[in-house]
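Entry type: protein chain
Record version: 2
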Amino acid sequence: MNSIEKALQKKNEQPEVEDLKKSSIEQAQKVRVDEKSSPRKDSIENSDDSEIIINFENLGNKGFVSTNSERLLINEEYREIKRKLLSNAFGPLSKSLNNSNIIMVTSSRPGEGKTFTAINLALSIALEQDKTVLLVDADVLRPNVMKTLELENKEGLIEYLLGEANSISEIMCKTNLNNFKIISAGKSHHLSTELLASEKMKDAVEEFANRYTDRVVIVDTPPLLGINETAVLANLAGQALVVTEESKTKLMDLQKAVAQLNPDMAIGFVVNKSERGSSDNAGYGYYYAGKN
């Protein structure tokens, strides 16, 4: 083959080489685009547990448990209340309670301070060094946790029970306080009683109770009298904290309310809005009326 024929052959092969180069460049660009547009595995895993920011200073100014180093009376009162609950949840009695670390906070009638108590209890437990706390708003008829914390309502318990949220982690929100997470009630639904009585709710409570050995779950439930949802939830929790309002809650109502609870639960009472002047008893009293 002479030099002219070799030159012609090289010229004929050049487009093929150029095509290969072009193809390689296009493939590399496609890979880079795919990597950019597709979320990384670790970002998918971290997409759950969205964070919400709570103004704890504002809460403290409104009379809630303080999360800073101040030694306030309300902090001391809730320290006393939570000690018995934590002992029930993790101490010797826990072996005889079903889901001992699930604590429902309720009242006989609306307006007696159950949400205020549930939030304060959750804040106080979150300050423990070796405990985490999950606050669940299960008062799906009149949800008040997010409103009290001055937060926007989010997808929550009802969406999960309806299958609109695929996992608990999708509705569980981290907060800017370590060890403290929240699940909101979510949207209202006409089948709320049936949803709370479903197997999916039972499975959710089991996950709440057993996934983390150091977790305490505070469930803000509707009042006990005249509302079916609360009686359903009472069969899922190991402890009940019944909030009463001093000089307002009627003894007959309280007796009827307690009759709605599971007799195998540990049942305690908090006296709310107390006007007693003694620093030893001001504000709150805790009385244990469950298993011995």
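Comment: The chain has twelve helices and nine strands.
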